[in-house]
């Protein structure tokens, strides 16, 4: 039955369609979490800006905030003083909440940091954000495009907030799915990576043993084995 299904054109197309739906759902989920994180960073940066204006606090408050926040959330790595300064700058250059929600929050945080460092014009930054989403650019590609002045060679904004979902196979989608900030924010860092690795290994081993047939047995996912040294076994 299995071999017949694998040769059936209708089944192959059906399986391919399901794979695409799963991949797209993964990308949508990762982008949704990413958008929440980026907007949170904007809110943190904006709050720091307002407090500094109201209370007259200097830059040293960022160091104190970073230490206190990291003590409260030790599993989250995005709360360094350097990153808090990026958040403040992010809120400063993007005062428009709508712009942040509809465009800037649609790309990973590290992409936004690159634009903060390398692009001074808001109009130019907006163009690069749109192109990043539409073309699925990774961070390295974005840096290359900025450093080779792609905007000056090709770009002018033709419309606002008209972006498409990056394709699951694009570099942007892959980077978003693997973004360590997303795992850290969800408190799913190393533990999650190890669990995913274990699950994949067990699945592969199970499949292999089942294909071997009689004479082989899969005892369980985690099975304690006591191994005696040879000299102990001889006594």
SSE map:
Elements: H1 2-7, H2 9-55, H3 60-72, H4 81-93, H5 97-102, H6 109-118, H7 122-135, H8 139-147, H9 150-154, H10 171-177, H11 180-185, H12 190-212, H13 230-234
Helix pairs in contact: 2-4, 2-10, 6-8
Q: What fraction of residues sit in β-strands?
A: under 5%
Tally of separate helices: 13
Which percent range fits the helix content? 55-70%
User: How would you classify the helix and strand content by structural class?
Assistant: mainly alpha
Multimeric organization: single chain
Q: Main sheet?
A: none
The low-confidence parts are: 188-193
Shape designation: globular
Count up the domains. Answer: 1
Mean pLDDT, nearest integer?
79
What does this structure look like?
The protein has 235 residues and is mainly alpha-helical. The protein has helices at residues 2-7, 9-55, 60-72, 81-93, 97-102, 109-118, 122-135, 139-147, 150-154, 171-177, 180-185, 190-212, 230-234. The longest helix is centred in the N-terminal third of the chain and has 47 residues, at 9-55. The relative contact order is 0.10.
């Amino acid at each position: 039955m299995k071999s017949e299904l694998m040769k059936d054109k209708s089944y192959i197309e059906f399986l391919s369609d399901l794979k695409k739906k799963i991949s797209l759902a993964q990308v949508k989920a990762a982008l949704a979490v990413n958008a929440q994180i980026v907007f949170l960073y904007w809110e943190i940066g904006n709050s720091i800006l307002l407090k500094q204006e109201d209370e007259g606090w200097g830059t040293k408050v960022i160091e104190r905030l970073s230490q206190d926040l990291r003590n409260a959330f030790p599993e989250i790595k995005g709360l360094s003083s350097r990153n808090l300064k990026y958040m403040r700058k992010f809120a400063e250059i993007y005062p428009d909440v709508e712009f942040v929600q509809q465009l800037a929050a649609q790309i990973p945080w590290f992409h936004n940091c690159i634009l903060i460092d390398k692009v001074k014009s808001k109009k130019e930054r907006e163009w690069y954000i749109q192109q990043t989403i539409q073309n699925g650019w990774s961070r390295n590609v974005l840096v290359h495009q900025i450093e080779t002045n792609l905007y000056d060679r090709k770009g002018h904004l033709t419309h606002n907030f008209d972006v498409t979902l990056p394709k699951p196979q694009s570099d942007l989608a892959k980077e978003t799915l693997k973004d360590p900030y997303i795992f850290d924010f969800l408190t799913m860092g190393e533990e999650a990576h190890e669990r995913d690795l274990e699950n994949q290994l067990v699945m592969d081993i199970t499949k292999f043993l089942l294909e071997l047939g009689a004479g082989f047995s899969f005892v369980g996912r985690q099975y304690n084995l006591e191994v005696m040294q040879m000299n102990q076994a001889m006594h």
